[in-house]
Amino acid sequence: MTFDWDHAKTFLAVAEAGSLSGAARALGQTQPTVSRQIAAFETALDATLFERTGRSVALTPFGVELLDHVRAMARGADMVALSATGQSQSVEGQVRITASELMSAFVLPPILMDISQQAPSLEIDVVADNGVRDLTRREADIAIRHARPEQPNLQARRLSDERMRFYASATYLETAGQPAKCNLSKHQIVSYVEADRMLNYLLPAGLDLTRGNFRFTSSSQFVALEMARGGLGLVILPERVAARLPDLVPVARDIGVFDLPTWLVTHSEVKTSRRIRLVFDVLADSLS
Questions:
Q1: Most CB atoms within 10 A, among 22, 174, 186, 240?
Q2: How far apart are CA 275 and CA 65, in angstroms?
Q3: How many CB atoms lie within 10 A of CB 45?
Q4: What are the distances in angstroms from CA 52 to CA 38, 49, 55?
Q5: Which band of pLDDT confidence, cut at 50, 70 and 90, is reported for residue 102?
Q6: How buried is residue 87: exposed, middle or buried, by Cβ count under 10 Å (0-12/13-18/19+)?
């Protein structure tokens, strides 16, 4: 029996998204196109894969059984793509870098200019994402992370630690005053991670903080930054990012800096590609 691999990929996307519309967004297609591909896949297999329940879908027993096989096929296809990319010796084509929003906006642009001068034919796609992209599934070629990867097929290089400090706007300081020595208990801290995670990071430093100090949070670093610039509270920023923001001033200097480990990560097979190796090496030199 033969079938279209694109139909199998669509089946996997629908199974993981739980709906046709979600799969369409993930694949960059329209919902009718996804629906037609699922119907064609079911016809080729002579089996029903999904039960439609309103706007969502549920796998049939056969669909559940098939899902693991299609996932294994997808992993195999990913490894084929990685191996092919690794054999490419031309310094052209696309390299996808994923990093946090602040890193992408304030740190990477001058480094990308250097890369562009060395390899004018390269295309660089910056995926500004505060989450962790899956390099093995080609969601990016290179990642800048603050945790060492655990997967054995990834290569990582330790960069210089990111030096973090507390900053605040003049508006906030006029209202709340300067933080007393090592005492932030009466101040608000704008956070771009969950309050509990930030507390776990700050409490070991001996700071007197509770969840009440984190009334304003956002999953977006840019939103949190604008909250702080608007006077809603203190914010912890990398020194090299804050240097680009003259309206924010360092506060709580007696607390000192927080060193955040930084890793440059790529897939072991991709590292043999000249274009990816060039970008990896320039990033490593510049960020160290």
A1: 22
A2: 40
A3: 17
A4: 12, 10, 7
A5: very high
A6: exposed
pLDDT at 271: 64
CATH code for the domain defined by 162-259 = 3.40.190.10
Q: Which residue has the higher pLDDT, 201 or 104?
A: 104
Closest CA to 42 of 3, 93, 88: 3
CATH of domain 89-158+262-287: 3.40.190.10
Judged against a pLDDT cut of 90, whether residue 234 lies above it is answered with: yes
pLDDT at 255 over 70: yes
Q: How far apart are CA 65 and CA 224, in angstroms?
A: 44
Residue 24 tokens, joined = 């369409």
Quickly name the fold that domain 5-86 has. Answer: Arc Repressor Mutant, subunit A (1.10.10)
Please state the φ and ψ torsions of residue 8, each to the nearest 5 degrees. -65, -40
In tens, the pLDDT along 106-159 reads: 999 999 999 998 888 899 999 988 877 777 777 889 998 888 887 778 888 888
Token couple for 51: 């039960």
